[in-house]
Specification:
This protein has 81 residues and is mainly β. The chain is built from no helices and 7 strands.
Length: 81
């Protein structure tokens, strides 16, 4: 698992080989509409604030390593109370 939500609800991208291999990640809404893409992830450990996703709900992502799909999954962004 390379992309997941941390204990604080933020999205964590953990790519130990980010300096060696080329990674790209695309995030989509639950209904499939693309939200945004990071064309080249250069850091090994990156945290995206959950506010980046604008509202709570399920989001899908596709992580590519050198053009090939490495991981495809979803995560839940919860709202703060």
């Amino acid at each position: 698992v390379y992309v997941y939500t941390g204990n604080d609800g933020n999205v964590v991208i953990n790519l130990p080989e980010a300096g060696v291999k080329k990674y790209a990640i695309t995030f989509s809404r639950e209904e499939g509409r693309p939200l945004f893409t990071i064309p080249e992830v250069k850091e090994k450990y990156l945290v995206l604030d959950k506010a980046t996703f604008l509202k709570s709900g399920w989001y899908f992502f596709e992580l590519r390593e050198d053009g090939q799909v490495k991981e495809r999954n979803k995560f839940l962004i919860t709202r703060d109370y």
